[in-house]
Amino acid sequence: MEVKQLTLIEYYGAEDDLRELFNSIKDRGYNIIGPKIVDNVIRLEELKEFSEIPRGIEDIQKPGMYKLVRGEFFRHGPDSPKKFLFPPRLLLFRVSKDWTIEIPEVEEKLIAFFGIKPCDLAAIKAMDEVQGELGDPYYRLIRKNLLIIVENCIEPGETCFCSTMETGPIAGSGFDIAYTRVEDFIVFSADSEIGVNLLKELNLRPLDSEKSTKYAKAIKRAIDKAKANFSIEGLPEKLELSLNSPAYKEITEKCLGCANCNMVCPTCFCFDVVDVPNLNGTVERIRVWDGCFSYSYAMVAGGHFRPDLWARYRHWLLHKFSYWLKQFGRFGCVGCGRCITWCPVGIDVRESIIKILNWVRTYGEVTE
Prior knowledge:
Helices cover 33% and strands 22% of the residues. It folds into two domains: 215 residues, no CATH class; 129 residues, no CATH class. It is built from 13 helices and 16 strands. By secondary structure, it is an alpha+beta fold.
């Protein structure tokens, strides 16, 4: 059948079609970034072969816990697309011994994310809003030619709540190709011209009624599983009534202020700029990730405007679930759950929000 009308219409194929898709993208000159097991953790790395994508592996994720076991479906590790679009360490310029300034040229690359989850697609959309027309030139250059292949998440993990944040577990738009593993077949859909052209090269067939029913049931189960015990309706306004809530101090009694949540968050975009002297007499100015949990983050020449850890936690939570909406028109949290999994003391942001909302329901207004 002609596949010209494939956009947002589901077709199905098999594992061999997925492998052929990978090779076709590679043949077009793309550097493919996808999930790969490194030191017993699923990382996002450059892939040379389709076989590097883990199969028969599951990640068990709970508050403060992550491990790989034998299974059918994995979610994600600590890495997100931000690692490549907004790298943790970026050389801005170098000053030589004779005071010559050398600005590195950014190579325009063809990058394809292969097998990222819908929450990470949503994070890319969120970062697009942050960068905007006047954003980071490095980000915008890489983003310009980015190809996005999403694997829909039919088995959300224990720390996932993308359904509540309306970012998953099924990608709605903004991808080039999305695929979904359902029992013994794979459902494919396209949302761009290049996505349509790539799928036209595969031996795909339209979904029949039986497969369509199985697919719909798998999606429904995933949506139900990836929900938190709170609603985003009116959430920003409710949270802003909690500024003086003692709940923040209670939550951060066990917080280490380590900024792990900042580092693994796919949308945190704060950075610092440091000057690094080298033994050869040159100096490099480097942009590095920073986070609002770090004590030095809020230090200014006149003092420190957020010295207490509970205040830094409050700022982070309100930024993700309230302020971001005012700034960029969307939530800053995509419900990926990384901040829960990779918190060394297992602080669960979902439980934090429920605790804070309970306080707001009890008191109803900011108290002095």
